[in-house]
């Protein structure tokens, strides 16, 4: 067979394709396999390798191709241009209709989202106050709360998320996360939680009981100073080789850190922070507002320390508590001020030998030692040490004594007006109370019978609730029971105005006194002082009784004045953020960040308050 040229090969392929199309057309038009009628049918061309048409080269390829294409369908037969145009118009109309429907659905959803913001903010306040919440969840909820408040102040979504992200010291990614978290919370009151640390893990050495027992024993021995580095060295050098692992495997420091987390330890410094259990209780919050208002008045009379070393003085207007262990202890009662640190006389000041040089009292509590610290001991310390030393160091100044809510700080004098200490009838084991005044006319009344009372058995004896109420005209004809009479008496203005023993003594000396709210140790900067002193004791004591006695005075003197002033400044910052309406956890989160974030949020809350007033 002669060799075909390139043009002949193309023609052969065209003929084969034509033959296939003719056969398909014939099968579609008729079911007859053998038909002699050529009308309406397409003839197929038989292509034979011996066909002489391939013997010689073609002179006119175009003519032959046209001859071969006779009877085939044209392109417009396969693609109807009119129909195609109509369908494309219909598709474009349907696309426009669907896009408009989608836009309308988005607008409706966006409107519903804005309408749900007030309800979402109310749920956020409840969720933020929940206890036992993970820190990452609490941070997300606070970020969402700030974001929604900015949206209410007519911020755009993008600007609001950027503001919250910048306040948290984050970037663009966190801003996008805030936007998505807020949208999800408003629509479903839920946020996506992180799955970090919840995925399946490989085999752990802690699954071995022998290893776990030795790890727990070692961690308990070093529970106050354990670190991942220490646990890693103990595992690699002692525990695993000692259990016969050959060759002995090793763990990485990251694995040791995960083991500590699995055992319930957190990578943080153990220190006194905020009492969360009753921090936001209604009565505590109510008194906190009163305390902050009173403290705000006193702050104008206190010095402000600034500068790098906190030496510049200006005058305005001119973390879980450790349980106490068993064994012998040392009790320390100290007075602290940010002006001079520990309340004590300067070394250059000369006084008599019977005059105490410092307000600090150190005792050894216990039944067989110095006894127990009582209210009388505190009163003696204030009268004999604190007030005289203050007046000697700061003549002409007025002191503000601030106490926490310890039971020894809230005791009353023996003759104080306390209704619950009174009996219903005269005499008996009830205290002899002081003279008082009642009514708008300030009528004088003695709670004790006079020495010339007509009944000799009742002379200089307590009158009791019934007689006192009769003299005031408050005893009903049907009578009262003991608890009812005590309740009625306790509601009288003179009984309500009764102050504690400590407050009466300090006010009588010409000074002021205030009590911190319950569960608010962050407002009392002496708690930070105790923490620093205890840390020094733990690091420098040999854990013997003699060593402890030697270390405690050194620990009290180890805290410098600059550190005490930093503690005081932080306490006043807590007071400032509480005045602006932040809760305990929000204040703790805010003050852990840098100062410029605190300034930013202060300006933000001022703007938010102004916007609310405009609304």
Automatic annotation (TrEMBL):
Compositionally biased region (Acidic residues): 92-107
The organism of origin for this protein: Glomus cerebriforme
Skewed-composition ranges (Low complexity): 23-34
Domain of life: Eukaryota
Protein name: Tc1-like transposase DDE domain-containing protein
Segments for region (Disordered): 19-59, 82-107
Biased composition (Basic and acidic residues): 82-91
GO molecular function: nucleic acid binding
InterPro entries: RNaseH_sf (IPR036397)
